Each structure stands twice: as structure tokens, then as C-alpha cells.
Amino acid sequence: MLRELCKTSLEEQIKEIDFRIGYLKERKKQLIVAKEREDLRRFVEAAEKNGLSPAELARQLLARQA
User: Fold this and answer.
1) Could you give the C-alpha distances from 24 to 10, 27, 37, 56, in angstroms and in order?
2) Which of 19, 25, 42, 56 would be 52's cystine partner, CB 3.0–4.6 Å?
3) How far apart, in whole angstroms, are the C-alpha atoms of residue 13 and residue 17?
4) What pLDDT is recorded for position 60?
């Protein structure tokens, strides 16, 4: 990879790095959303195992915030 970068101009290298950064930032956002969904799914499953419906869980969480 380093050899490839040496063969290209500095501007081309900057463009390539900017492209990769943009791609990685977007991928990071996607992974964060997926993790949040998975965390929420696990949280709801744990609540259901303890006998709470999703609606009851939401009521309890809202009551704590008040």
C-alpha cells in the first residue's frame, strides 16, 4: 500500500484518504446504529424475562425521568 501511495501525486493521495475517511465515518455511523438497536433489543428481552411488557417497561422508564 505504501508503494502505491508513493506512485501517486500528493493531491491524489489526499483525495484517496479523504474518500476513505468519509467511508469509514459513514460505516461508523451504521455500526453505532446497529449497536444501539442490538442494545435495545437485549434490554427489552431482559425486561420481558422479568415479566415486563415493552409498554410497562416504557412506563417505568418514563416515571423515573419525571
Assistant:
1) 21, 5, 20, 38
2) 56
3) 6
4) 86
Burial class, 4, CB count within 10 angstroms (exposed 0-12 / middle 13-18 / buried 19+):
exposed
H helix runs in the chain, sequence order:
2-7, 10-49, 54-65
Instruction: Determine the pLDDT at residue 36.
Output: 96
Average pLDDT value for residue range 7-16: 89
Cα 12 to Cα 20: distance, rounded to the nearest angstrom: 12
Per residue in 24-62, pLDDT tens?
999 999 999 999 999 999 999 998 999 988 888 888 888
Burial grade of 6 (CB within 10 A; 0-12, 13-18, 19 or more): exposed
